[in-house]
Design brief:
Blueprint: E1 2-5, E2 19-20, H1 24-31, H2 35-38, E3 44-47, H3 55-62, E4 66-70, H4 76-89, E5 94-98, H5 100-104, E6 116-117, H6 122-134, H7 139-147, E7 174-175, E8 181-184, E9 187-188, H8 199-202, E10 208-209, H9 212-220, E11 226-229, H10 238-251, E12 256-261, H11 263-268, H12 270-278, E13 281-289, H13 293-298, H14 305-318, E14 321-326
Parallel strand pairs: 1-3, 1-4, 4-5, 5-6, 8-11, 11-12, 12-13, 13-14
Antiparallel strand pairs: 2-7, 9-10
Helix pairs in contact: 3-4, 6-7, 9-10
Length: 327
């Protein structure tokens, strides 16, 4: 079974010149294959952004039974092309697609060359596919089982991602000046409802978090010093962040952190951010979005120019890097 992160087309406008992060979602699939299936399947991640061998050569050499892709909107075309190639090179091979775009705009992947689209609960859906294939079920039967899996889960209780599954690629994962850089996710969705944001669509507007104790246990096992916390908004709950810092100190964990945070939180929590910096906070990505008050109102951002300006000053005063994003 191959799990593939495709390389976007050369013409794609993207951020690969400033970032190339590990495929965390695929690492979760590897680590969460059920115990009763582990001896019956071999699951391997292929990161085509860094892989030296051609995709076609990999298909011919490994002849997988299933190839599952992850991707964003910029990958829709290339994923379809790669699915077609896989089916042409390996008769009987099945294909699937998951990831954030498949969860929000599943219809973009409705194509003859794609057998399964994991539009919700991707880890469970992947495992159901494995069970169906091992039981020699037909594609239609597996699809029916996927449809019967219920609504989107609003909790997260899975094994930590298997980062060893991309050990050959880890040297190439970075975010701007943070290199090599590992990812960790501690929450899902966003508690805010900005009008432009794609993030809230992934969870249907819901917001839920992992237990901080479990997060810190995962963090303790990560080899990289640079850590990118990829929550849509890690700087949300002061109490949660305080507990995070206490546990870091208790376990003697020393890392360098990059996080997302809102301007209003930054502006009103200088003392907390000072303490966070002492325990490794290096940079905060802040969605300033616009310098125009009217724009912020239209975006339902619930911030204003004064908050944005104060947030910038707070981070400057603390010596924490600001990566400001603008629409």
């Amino acid at each position: 079974m191959l799990l593939v992160r495709p390389k976007p087309e050369k013409e794609t406008i993207g951020l690969q010149h400033v970032m190339n992060c590990e495929p965390l979602e695929l690492e979760y699939l590897v680590s969460n294959v059920p115990e009763e299936l582990r001896s019956k399947v071999r699951v391997q991640i292929i990161d085509m952004i860094l892989e030296k061998e051609s995709y076609e050569s990999i298909l011919i050499r490994l002849r997988p039974a299933l190839v599952v892709f992850t991707g964003y909107i910029t990958h829709v075309g290339i994923i379809k092309t790669m699915c077609s190639m896989a089916k042409n090179r390996v008769p009987g091979l099945l294909t699937g697609v998951g990831g954030v775009h498949a969860e929000v705009v599943a219809e973009d992947f409705e194509a003859a060359e794609i057998d399964f689209v994991y539009s919700r609960n991707g880890i469970d859906g992947f495992n159901e596919t494995l069970r169906g294939m091992l039981a020699n079920k037909k594609v239609a039967e597996i699809k029916a089982a996927l449809e019967e899996m219920g609504e989107r889960k609003l909790s997260f209780s899975y094994r930590h991602p298997d980062r060893t599954a991309v050990s050959k690629y880890r040297h190439g994962y970075y975010y701007m000046f943070h290199s090599p850089c590992a990812l960790i996710k501690t929450s899902f969705g966003c508690p805010y409802h900005c009008s432009f944001c794609f993030c809230k669509e992934i969870t249907g507007g819901a917001y839920f978090t992992r237990e901080i104790d479990d997060v810190v246990d995962e963090l303790a096992a990560i080899a990289e010093e640079e850590i990118y916390i990829v929550d849509d908004d890690f700087l949300f709950s002061e109490a949660r962040i305080r507990k995070f810092l206490r546990l870091l100190k208790k376990q003697g964990i020393e890392k360098k952190f990059l996080v997302y945070g809102r301007a209003d939180f930054v502006a009103s929590h200088e003392d907390l951010l000072r303490d966070f910096k002492e325990q490794g906070l290096q940079a905060v990505i802040v969605g300033l979005e616009s310098m125009r008050a009217r724009d912020l109102e239209l975006y339902n951002k619930k911030t204003d120019k004064a908050m944005n300006e104060k947030a910038v000053k707070v981070l400057q005063a603390l010596g924490i890097e600001l990566y400001a994003t603008l629409i």
